[in-house]
UniProtKB/TrEMBL annotation:
Belongs to the EPSP synthase family. It catalyses: 3-phosphoshikimate + phosphoenolpyruvate = 5-O-(1-carboxyvinyl)-3-phosphoshikimate + phosphate. Signal peptide: none annotated. GO terms for molecular function: 3-phosphoshikimate 1-carboxyvinyltransferase activity. It is an enzyme of class 2 (transferase). This is 3-phosphoshikimate 1-carboxyvinyltransferase. Its EC number is 2.5.1.19. It comes from Rhizobium pisi. Its main location: cytoplasm. 3-phosphoshikimate binds at residues 26-27, 31, 170-172, 297, 320, 324. The active site is at 297 (proton acceptor).
Amino acid sequence: MTRTAKLTIIPPGKPLSGRAMPPGSKSITNRALLLAGLAKGTSRLTGALESDDTRYMADALRAMGVTIDEPDDTTFVVTGSGRLLPPKAPLFLGNAGTATRFLTAAAALVDGTVIVDGDEHMRKRPIGPLVDAMCALGIDATAETGCPPVTVRGTGRFQADRIRIDGGLSSQYVSALLMMAAGGDRPVDIELVGEDIGALGYIDLTTAAMKAFGAKVEKTSPVTWRVEPTGYHAADFIVEPDASAATYLWAAEVLTGGAIDLGVPAEAFSQPDARAYDMIARFPHLPAEIDGSQMQDAIPTLAVLAAFNETPVRFVGIANLRVKECDRIRALSTGLTRIDPNLAREEGDDLIVQSDPALAGKRLPAEIDSFADHRIAMSFALAGLKIAGITILDPDCVGKTFPAYWRTLAALGVTYQDND
Ligand SMILES: O=C(O)C1=C[C@@H](OP(=O)(O)O)[C@@H](O)[C@H](O)C1
Ligand SMILES: C=C(OP(=O)(O)O)C(=O)O
């Protein structure tokens, strides 16, 4: 399929109103796929996300002997044998952080060699702390560059019962170890070290999913979890909608003064990014400082929204946005300054957005580089709802987590000029 090179958004000039459902949660779908794949028996995941990231996870599990059917666009039926088999070839996981980190740890449960690899972006995303923690458990794991590819020679057995892990660069390391630990041969304590714990809400998502598939995991201190070697059992599991995807719709609503019905209230989400709802609801009176540490994937949305706020906004606690799909702090400052040279600047790892409500209604032609990052493409589309001439490069990168994004906006009344 040919990719669209660019897409120019035509400001709707009216409030966006109607029904628009976000897709299933990427984070929860990829946890449920893995846990169902590790279980013995058949699990049915409904409300799930079918996108690039979940396809990478599903295909990797298939390569390790798991049967996965997709009877419709939101359902995975997963049948596992209780044991992953060594794949014949390296697992290629694109730029899916969850799939890469979760499968690196799960590879320790395979009796044999697994090579976990990704695309050129993933090969720049650090995985050293996870690999080191696995080695400390006696698992043979190596990542020469500190990033994928990772080679794991698993046995399903551990040689220690305690792991210390710094989740500052990515909470996914902690989630990966927790999910792995239930498949091992002894109880394991997993302790967070380091000052910056990252997005704790993602760890809660992990332990909730583990329990739904029969694991026994208990928080024994504010920074320690004990995981029993129960393995997993098959389960029917409902995936909630994606809170990060919802942020674009919440922002589109306040930016255009519309009324968008997502079919699910903000309080119903268990994902960390749902906390962005209260912040978005304060627009155009966003606070002078926003701490992004517990709602990281919502920061691109909030940063573009901040451009139209009444007063400037400083984003703090976002250092690890530099090691996401791209350096998001750089991508946001680059895109915003392309719209207006004074609109944003970086100070260390903080991003300062110099708000200007008068941007709305202007024509400011700007080509926005997505840097192959779905969230950069989706958030800058919001600027295009108010400013004429915003063109998103590589708009198809939204397929990572929200393949229907452009169609969803179109159903609300947004139109595009297709430049191909
Ligand atoms: O555990 C998860 O599902 C995720 C954790 C976060 O990443 P980090 O833990 O790398 O910050 C988030 O940005 C990512 O989109 C999904
Ligand atoms: C950071 C993200 O993804 P991942 O780490 O799962 O690749 C994201 O979806 O914003």
